[in-house]
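re: ur question from earlier - yeah i can do the single chain one, its not a big deal. heres the input i used so u can compare w yours
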Amino acid sequence: MFKTVLILHLLGATIWTGGHMILCFSVLPNVLKTRDIKPLQMFETHFERIGMPALFVQVLTGFHLASTMLPLTEWFKFDSYVNTHISVKVILLLLTLILAIHAKVKLLPNLSDKNLNSLACHIVAVTIISILFAVLGVGIKIGGIF
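and the output i got, formated as tokens:
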């Protein structure tokens, strides 16, 4: 069961992180240069179909994997690399959710040249966070990164 959950978690991470890297490094620079928001809207529409389920799978499998390593009561103690990594990943998840809700409610419905830079900041932030998720996940398996 553990291996299956881990594989699902890694597939979700691949989709989520890879999609955001494509958005950030391929689609976004062109959109910012031309100020044409259509490619961004198209990417979001297509990516949301697979990206949001991937994130959902990551969250479910991530909580399952974390709970197999440590009980929930140990997560925020910051006294070992495992609970530190888990805690930071939970904090990053909360930041991702805040950014996603803000983008979905405030920025995307009224997307225009005026708030494009704000959305670009969100995209860069979520991309950095998604990369940090992956690095921290690897860190748990290799004995920590801090």
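The CA atoms of residues 46 and 112 lie 19 Å apart. not sure if urs matches, ping me
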